[in-house]
Amino acid sequence: MSTYVLVHGAWHTGSELEPVAAPIRAAGHQVHTPTIKGNRPGDAKTTGLTEAIQSITDYLADNNLKDVILLGHSYGGMIITGVADQAAERIRRLVYWNAFVPNNGESLNDMVPPHYLALFDAIAAERGDGSVVLPFPIWRDAFTNDADLATAQRAYDILNPHPLKTSATRSRCAAIRPR
After folding, report:
1. Active site residue 171
2. Most exposed of 21, 119, 130, 160 (fewest Cβ within 10 Å)?
3. How many CB atoms lie within 10 A of CB 51?
4. Burial grade of 62 (CB within 10 A; 0-12, 13-18, 19 or more)
5. For residue 91, which of 44, 54, 121, 57 has the smallest C-alpha distance?
6. Catalytic pick from 74, 131, 167, 171?
């Protein structure tokens, strides 16, 4: 059986991936759903991409995980790319599930529609803690425009403030090589 590590997207924690993990576990696989540093409720929102990546690299090492299928959803693609650069020997496969796939030296800000950059900065300035939470109408239009209102609202209600600094940090993925 395989070992999976599911890495969530922005505004989430690992617990949001538990419904995805359940059927994988039921099939006999080991599944981990860690929360990226900066995304836990109560975490400082000054975390950058480097620290966020390191938190998952440390998770793999602390749990002695090897031959891992590392899945990243959305912003989680930024994380798994960096983890693969730091801990390639622990990873069997990368899976980008509706995720950002950065080239070496790209930041998330390089990949989002430009009109969001000023919005992210304005929201973070208004919040005063370095984090971003999109207003519901914008979030729904960008992420859940195909869901009914009640489903979209339930999804929005579990979001956590996300550290803006993670969006500006450039990725490092020079060590990733196809097997």
Report:
1. no
2. 119
3. 17
4. exposed
5. 57
6. 74
Determine if the pTM surpasses 0.90: yes
How do 162-163 and 131-132 pair as beta strands? antiparallel
Identify the residue whose tokens are 């020997």.
89
What Cα–Cα distance (Å) separates residue 108 from each residue in 27, 121, 149, 151?
Answer: 34, 14, 28, 27
Residue 24 structure tokens = 């994988």
- Strand order through the sheet with 91-99: 30-32, 3-7, 68-74, 91-99
Both structure tokens of 87:
């801990």
All structural domains of the chain, each given as residue ranges with its CATH number in brackets, are 3-168 (3.40.50.1820)
Q: Going by DSSP bridges, is the β-strand pair 162-163/91-99 parallel, antiparallel, or unpaired?
A: unpaired
Classify 140 in phi/psi space as left (phi over 0), alpha (psi -120 to 50) or beta.
alpha
CB 8 within 8 A of CB 76: yes
Per-residue pLDDT of the chain (179 residues; tens, 9 = 90+): 999 999 999 999 999 999 999 999 999 999 999 999 999 888 999 999 999 999 999 999 999 999 999 999 999 999 999 999 999 999 999 999 999 999 888 999 999 998 889 999 999 999 999 999 999 999 999 888 999 999 999 999 999 999 999 998 887 765 554 44
